[in-house]
Amino acid sequence: MTNTPTRIVLADDQDDIRSGFRLVLDSQPDMTVVGEAADGNGALELARRLRPDVVLADIRMPGIDGLELTRLLAGPGVAHPTRVIVVTTFDLDDYVHTALRNGAGGFLLKRSGPTLLIEGVRAAMAGDALISPQITVRLLSRLTTPPPPPLPSPLSPPPLPSPAAGPGADPLTHREQDIVRLVARGWTNSRIADELFISPGTVKTHIANVQTKLGTANRVGIAAWAWQTGLAVPEP
């Protein structure tokens, strides 16, 4: 029995961008592009009619923009949400925050390349949220100097775990700490695997274990924790 390929709709007002994405995604045995739209209204109609697994949406399109499209397809209160990955030229912080708040399953820059595009689709299908490394590092590195801790209070939330341990006193192994540092830099599973001489599947398993130990929902939460605790450091 073969697995059904991930069905994808492309929403971008530039024909050459859609053609490039189609070539990249259709080259993968587990992905197939089932529709294209050149504006937000057409993308919304297409997504509701075809019920794809993933929609790749640009932000600036005629009609409704990609952020509103994300909210309509994946936002809070949507009865049958569709996974949406925002793929754009513009990496403004407001766009990133709005996209994720509206339910986006990823935020990628068009210049990030085909490998990240493919991994972004697979991450969304796995329930994760992949953000381009340039954005991840810029947003999360601001957490390297956390504010002073408040005075202890019975109503205060528990402090963040130390870099060596997560909730329940389950420590991160040295290998898990290595992987967390690279996740905090915005590296993909494939790049981490190459760096540490392990398989991408092993990286995925380690990340799942780390998420359980830290109580985070995805790799973005892992990265935020790493920057907040000082485990992550800027690249030289």
Could you characterize what this model shows?
It is built from ten helices and six strands, in the order βαβαβαβαβαβααααα. It is 45% helix and 12% strand. The N and C termini lie far apart (48 Å). It has helices at residues 15-26, 40-50, 66-74, 93-101, 114-125, 133-140, 174-184, 189-196, 200-214, 219-229; strands at residues 6-11, 31-37, 54-57, 83-88, 106-109, 130-131. A six-stranded parallel beta sheet has the order 2-1-3-4-5-6, with helices on both faces. The modification 4-aspartylphosphate is found at residue 58. This is Response regulator transcription factor. Residues 142-172 are annotated as: Disordered.
Morphology call: globular
Q: Give the SSE order as H and E letters.
A: EHEHEHEHEHEHHHHH
What proportion strand? 5-15%
Number of helices: 10
InterPro entries: CheY-like_superfamily, NreC/VraR/RcsB-like_REC, Sig_transdc_resp-reg_C-effctor, Sig_transdc_resp-reg_receiver, Tscrpt_reg_LuxR_C, WalR-like
Protein name: Response regulator transcription factor
Modified residues (4-aspartylphosphate): 58
Domain HTH luxR-type: 165-230
Give keywords.
12% strand; Sig_transdc_resp-reg_receiver; Tscrpt_reg_LuxR_C; 10 helices; 6-stranded parallel β-sheet; alpha/beta; transcription regulation; phosphoprotein
Explain briefly what this protein structure is.
With 236 residues, this protein is of the alpha/beta class. The protein is built from ten helices and six strands, in the order βαβαβαβαβαβααααα.
